[in-house]
Amino acid sequence: xxxxxxxxxxxxxxxxxxxxxxxxxxxxxxxxxxxxxxxxxxxxxxxxxxxxxxxxxxxxxxxxxxxxxxxxxxxxxxxxxxxxxxxxxxxxxxxxxxx
Length: 99
Known about the structure:
single chain; mainly alpha; two-stranded antiparallel sheet
């Protein structure tokens, strides 16, 4: 019996762009642009600089890029930096109508 993660991975692996309805693809593009915009804006804040500095000290590697900085980091460090930046100026948790 496959796990939920395995089932989701198999679904994602076999999904093609043509399988996604146009309205869903449009919403996904909007959410992606929103996330990138928030990450880039967050990269110019004090907390953005702090998480970037922290990410740079966590290891050596160049598998991924820190958004807004262009710094190549190990994948795990870039994930930490980018996820912090992407949620740093995101106020949907406090704006009920955004949910």
